[in-house]
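Worked Example 4.2. Read the sequence first, then its structure tokens.
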Amino acid sequence: MLFGETGREMARRAREAEKQFEAVKLHTSFRTLQGILDAVDRVTDRPDIQQALLSVDKVIHQAARTQAGGR
């Protein structure tokens, strides 16, 4: 995603500065339910959408919460 491109740019800059850089994947949501995240993953799995988001790797989101939404 756009975040991926930014991460690659930061990694490049770190290498040039001879500094350590660690790419940390942030795929866990603490607010969104798994069903919503699954839908996002299905949409962003399309090659045309991945290209538009500048994504190289497939992203799979996970929900940290286990309870149902609503009240």
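Now turn to a second chain, presented in exactly the same format:
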Amino acid sequence: MRSDLQQAFDDIFDYIEEHITDKLTLETIASTTNISKYHLHRLIKALSGQPLGEYIEPVNSREASSSS
């Protein structure tokens, strides 16, 4: 059985992947996932090893190359 924390992580990264072409900010993601900006920043960095902006850049590149 999945924990609530694991589900929250999945929700965060699913949201990022689904909205990668939108302007993503900590505020936007935090409000849709019901996690504070502070905790969201720490979670993204802990899980991906990068702050949000650095994590999104390669995801954007993957999306651009797959739609070409």
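Notes for the reader: The chain is about 75% helix and 0% strand. The mean pLDDT is 79.
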